[in-house]
Design brief:
mainly alpha
Amino acid sequence: MSKITRWALPSILSLSAVSGVSALITGITPQLHAQFKTVPTTLIEWTVTIANFSALLTLIINPRLTKRFGVRKVVVVGLLMSGIAGAVPAILTNFTAIFSCRIILGLGIGLFSPHAISMIAHVYQGDFRARLLGYQTGISALGNAVLLAFAGIVIVVSWRAVFAIYLLLIPIAVLVIRALPNVADNEKEPVNSNQRLPVLQLFLCLLAFVTYMLIWGVQLKLPVLFASHHIGSPSTANWTLSAMNIGGLVAGLTFGRLHAKLSAYTLSLGYLGAALSVFAMVFVRQPSVVILASVFFNYIYSYTGPYLVYRSNLGLSDQLIDRVSSYLTMATIISAFFAPVVWNWLGQFGTGTLTENALIWIGGSLSVIAIGSFVFAKNDLKKDSTKKGDYDERY
């Protein structure tokens, strides 16, 4: 491994800060609808999420690229590709061209995003590593909050100018060139092809897929809900999305304390609180309540992410940490692609508008998962107490 400088940690955490950069244009979906009236709703929402799906291609080949060129070069190319492709739509007027740029943006994201978690696992050890894995979610939320707040300012000038914010990835690429540790392939643990992920870890990856598909559904439908209910100006949705991510930051920073008290019940709390928040968004028409419910949703729901990351990495070797990190990233990416399809389809079933129906389905799904996770946590803790009792009797 190359020498670790004082700027190594900021360079690693900066990857987390921009890991959700594809969502930067979420707040301008109403403007995209208005500009491209003949384009279907699902395709408009795919403009936001298609970057996550195209990232899957470079994510799959990322290990080979890293082995051949090193982590630093792969990350830098990804940041530069994303910065340029993300900003170009600011001067484009053709929907197909904008959509194509979003695909290229995703290819770049797939090069740098998995290293936001894996670099922490490879460079740091012990309790500090565990804390950083928890902070990683909070820093990601903070990065999203800052970018979306900036978008809320820029959209007043022009919704197209929001795309130019992607140019901020270029200075981060410069920081990475100067400070990111370049982990060599031979410095990791010897590869054991017989190592397999435990069933629990695979289940957690599947749960992560559903979890992120649910949050994508809320984020995609929220700007449309605000527009249809006449809540504030066009920038209100961006500011609300920004505040939601601040809530996520608070959750990330307090996750350790809450998990120490609630253990596996942390997951149930996150899902249940999120379900109640979504129902409040739909059934309470008062603007202040809808905004507060949106912020609380992201705050309480953000306890689920750190738990899934922490629990899925617990007790694994370096090789399996790499694998589960890739699986979790894939779950996030694939969920973003399927979210518009699933929620626009389910939104057709119900008595309200498509947006309201979709949010009701999301709230119902969260309620079911909350109950299921509570039952699982209760049984799991009961097994642990039984094992402890058997151990005490023996010794």
